[in-house]
Amino acid sequence: MQNEFALEGWMFINYIALHWYYRIYQQLLAKHELNGKFSPKDFISFLTEIKRVKINDKWYTAEITKKTNDLLKKLELPIT
């Protein structure tokens, strides 16, 4: 690391990422008993596939794969 501030920033970002990872694991996957099928990394990769497009100054959700849509319904997460 270049200096102490960079190290503190790196540690903070890692703390936040780890906190989000385990929150996804505990509340979403373990609560709905999907941790045998999906990992938090899988869940995050499914969410990165969701795209929004702007057509004539209006935002629309692009196509979502069936697998991603089914997972979101099981977890009761609306995509707006």
What's the helix-strand series? HHEEH
Helix content: 55-70%
| Global shape | flat
The helix/strand class is: mainly alpha
Which range does the strand content fall in?
A: 5-15%
Question: What does this entry look like structurally?
Answer:
It is a single chain. The mean pLDDT is 88. The protein starts with a helix and ends in a 6-residue tail after the last helix. The chain has 80 residues and is mostly helical. The chain has one domain (4-74). Strands 1-2 form a two-stranded antiparallel sheet. Strand 1 and strand 2 (58-61) form a beta hairpin. The relative contact order is 0.10. The chain is flat. The chain has helices at 4-30, 40-48, 66-74; strands spanning 52-55, 58-61.
Task: Supply the key terms.
mainly alpha; 56% helix; 2 strands; single chain; 80 residues; two-stranded antiparallel sheet
Quick recap:
With 80 residues, this protein is mainly alpha-helical.
Architecture blueprint of SSEs:
Blueprint lengths: L3 H27 L9 H9 L3 E4 L2 E4 L4 H9 L6
